[in-house]
Amino acid sequence: MSALSDPRRFRRTAAGLCLVVAPVLYVAGVVADPALRQGGDTVGVYGRYPDQVSVSASLLHWSWVLLLPGIVGMIHLVRWRGVVFGHIAGGLAFLGIVNFSGLMLGDFFYSRLERAMPAAQGAMLADEAFADPGARYAFQIPGFLGLLGLLLLGLALAYARHTPWWAPFAMVLGALGAPVFPIGTVVGGALYLAGSGVIGLRMLRMSDDEWAGELRAQPAPAGSPSGNRANTR
User: What are the transmembrane regions (predicted)?
Assistant: First the structure.
């Protein structure tokens, strides 16, 4: 059976790989962002370096997109323990994180506006667009709520004994800290990759039966010998 026609292997592999690749693309996108590298007053930077903005925004976009299959895989592994909590947290994570992908289009608008008119005026116009209530409540706030959902989903996964407890904290703190160039990028990027990577690698290393939930330990039948035998002597 080919990998594409094997639902268990394909979905497990896709979810695991996405959790490994997503933080790599995220850090690469942060490093390619000319405004984050410069720091301080960034007005006009996107207009001066449109090619770098294009690369950065595209990498960041795909880092969020590829995180979504990983989130679906994490939800899949939350079974028997904390299922309702995992479903709620997973839904919040999925529906929230997808908004960050849409926000990456804003970088292209900043770049174009700063080239089409005086840089300060173009940046101010873009700022006003992002201050619109629709942009704030439909994209920005849900995006950060998605990070909260990702943290809670990771904790549900840890409760289900599929990941170490520190992994979800590393993922979220790393993603938040990576845009602080350069120290935050190095430390935050390493944390994000460690947290997301350990979950992804565990998915890649588990068997298809374990992924499908067919290896759940069964309770010992009544009357079977246990590990603690009474002393009858």
Answer: 56-77, 84-105, 137-160, 172-194
